[in-house]
Design a protein that fits this description.
308 residues; 3-stranded antiparallel sheet
């Protein structure tokens, strides 16, 4: 006769083994590094699990989803913001934050990422709303600092620390972009014209300076050459004068040289009038005296004949 007791016992044993395995699986939990878990016992916060192996009471303790303790980067979609001069700009924001308290991040806020996004949007509108477009475009560091201070203070009670806030892009309206591009082109053209004018000015100044220095050097060279020529002529005259005095010329020789020099005075084509100096008479007298003292030629038959 068939006895069903062994079969029932086998099923019970298998069910017991499965139950023990399930209990072990639910009791033993491993928390990875840079993660944190919140344990609830009978629906109430019991403790926060740190990285490592931990044992839970099955069916009594419940482990909530693990939280990432690493620094997270969240890029929020562009948000329209009105500036002080009533212009609508689109701003992209990037927030760097880190969960520092797993319990506060779990129980103090329902969705901390959405809360950070909404808080960033409202704070950004408050900060940029007090600036005009030009200040908003050039004061990113100031805006980032104000956003970080407000966000870090507000999210501290949520167990979150905001380390950095960056404005990824600030896009003004298309009409303003066209005006800014035209202004930038005009500014670049103005700077190019100024640089060209400065270059031309410097070139002309350098050219004039070079010409001036060249003229000065040429004048100095001409002056030195004239001085050298004058010195040479003076030395030549001095040598001639010394030579003449060394030869001790008499009045007759000087008169003869004077007469030889007189024709040279009329060599120029522009000399229409020849003025004879008064010294010519004295020179002629000297020459006459010279000729009168010359001995008569042997062929002259009148020599020695007394004159009446």
């Amino acid at each position: 006769m068939f006895n069903p007791l062994p079969v029932v016992l086998s099923f019970l044993l298998i069910a017991l083994v499965i139950f023990v395995l399930i209990v072990l699986i639910r009791s033993v939990r491993i928390v990875p590094q840079a993660r944190a878990g919140v344990v609830e016992r009978l629906g109430k916060y019991q403790r926060t699990l740190n990285p490592g192996l931990t044992i839970l009471i099955p069916f009594v303790d419940r482990l909530l989803p693990l939280l990432d303790l690493r620094e997270q980067v969240v890029s929020f979609p562009p948000q329209p913001v009105i500036t002080e001069d009533n212009l609508v700009v689109s701003i992209d924001t990037v927030v760097y934050f880190q969960v520092t308290d797993a319990r506060a991040a779990t129980y103090e806020i329902a969705n901390y990422i959405q809360a950070v996004e909404q808080l960033t949007t409202t704070t950004l509108r408050n900060v940029v709303g007090g600036l005009n477009l030009e200040q908003a475009l050039t004061s990113r560091d100031q805006i980032n600092g104000q956003l970080r201070g407000v966000l870090d203070e507000a999210t501290g009670r949520w167990g979150i620390r905001v380390s950095r806030v960056e404005l990824k892009a600030i896009d003004p309206p298309l009409s303003i972009q066209d005006s800014m591009e035209k202004q930038m082109r005009a500014e670049r053209d103005r700077r190019a014209a100024i640089l060209t004018a400065e270059g031309t000015k410097q070139s002309q100044i350098l050219t004039a300076e070079g010409e001036r220095q060249a003229a000065i050097l040429k004048a100095e060279g001409d002056a030195k050459a004239a001085i050298l020529r004058a010195d040479g002529e003076a030395q030549a005259i001095q040598k001639v004068f010394d030579a003449i005095h060394a030869g001790r010329p008499d009045q007759k020789l000087l008169a003869y040289q004077y007469l030889q020099t007189l024709p040279k005075l009329a060599e120029g084509t522009s000399n229409k009038l020849w003025i004879i100096p008064s010294e010519v008479g004295e020179a002629l007298k000297g020459i006459g005296g010279v000729l009168g003292n010359v001995a008569p030629d042997a062929g002259d038959t009148t020599a020695g004949v007394p004159r009446h």
